[in-house]
Amino acid sequence: MPPTQKHLQTSISRTGKDYAELHNWIDDPELKTARHDFTKIWEFGAAIKAKYGAEGLQEYIEHLREDMDVKLMKIWGKDATTRDEALDYYGIRRKGRDYSLDMADIKMLQDAGMSAEDLDHSLKVAGRALDIARRVVSGSGAQVDLELVGRGALFHDLGKAKTHAIEHGLLGAEMGKALGLPDTINVIMEKHIRGGLTAAEATELGLPVKDYTLHKLEERIIIYADRLVDIIYDGLVKVDSAADAELRFENILSNEIKYGKNDITRERYFGYHREIQGLMGTPPQ
């Protein structure tokens, strides 16, 4: 089963809170087996709901769902059709559900050799991107593919398992194709460098000459979240919260070359910021 830390991250992606106390209670070494028993959900559920509310009870169920996902993936291995039919039937995957991060995807990143630091960054970007996407849907009614946002954000830096050079986007897309990831996700890996390069910029940076610009709203949400996570967690600029990072976004990019890079890149990010802020209707978490 996945370590408790992974459950904290997926809770954040769904609720904005990690529910650390609840997940640690579920994974208590001496009582772990009983607390993962699906037949005891009714027994434990009332107390969990009384302490953590309906959302906490849902996170308890999500914890069990995620653990079952990982176990069944191990059992069935590459028998994808049988596995996916069963996962869909029992509601373990997200058909018809609001998307949440898949433990199998997280394991795929680990198996590819991604470092703990890079994985932590990817989890934070996925959580931030999903929060932004939900606010976009709530604020504007725009159609947003939450699965594409969540998986695209989670895998965007897959190439860093091999290199941190600027080629990691292209390499990530090649790795994703070899792993059988959808082209929509591989494209995000390929295009996320500098927020979506033009062919002229690609030439200047020594990358294959093509148009890397971002045509989908989901792609722009991921890129915006990626830059916000850097600002929030790098420590280069002091920010009080995610809301503060969003409020000061343009000022920060104008004054820190690490984030703004150059005039073209900075203006590109400003465009994403203005577009997405215009669509959102709820404050950041």
Write the topology of this structure:
Elements: H1 4-15, H2 20-26, H3 32-35, H4 41-76, H5 80-89, H6 103-111, H7 116-140, H8 146-155, H9 168-179, H10 183-191, H11 199-205, H12 217-234, H13 242-247, H14 249-255, H15 257-260, H16 263-279
Characterization of the model:
It is a single chain. The chain is an all-alpha fold and 285 residues long. It folds into two domains: 1-97; 101-285, Hypothetical protein af1432 (Orthogonal Bundle), CATH 1.10.3210. Helices cover 68% and strands 0% of the residues. The chain contains 16 helices and no strands. The chain has helices at residues 4-15, 20-26, 32-35, 41-76, 80-89, 103-111, 116-140, 146-155, 168-179, 183-191, 199-205, 217-234, 242-247, 249-255, 257-260, 263-279. α1 (4-15) packs parallel to α7 (116-140), α7 (116-140) packs across α12 and α8 packs across α12 (217-234).
Structural key phrases:
285 residues, single chain, mainly alpha, Hypothetical protein af1432
Q: Which outline best applies?
A: globular
Helix content: 55-70%
As residue ranges, the low-confidence spans are none
SSE pattern = HHHHHHHHHHHHHHHH
Count of separate DSSP helical elements: 16
Q: Whole-number average pLDDT?
A: 89
Oligomer: single chain
Structural class: mainly alpha
In CATH, what is the class of the largest domain? Mainly Alpha
Quick synopsis:
With 285 residues, this protein is mostly helical. It is built from 16 helices and no strands.
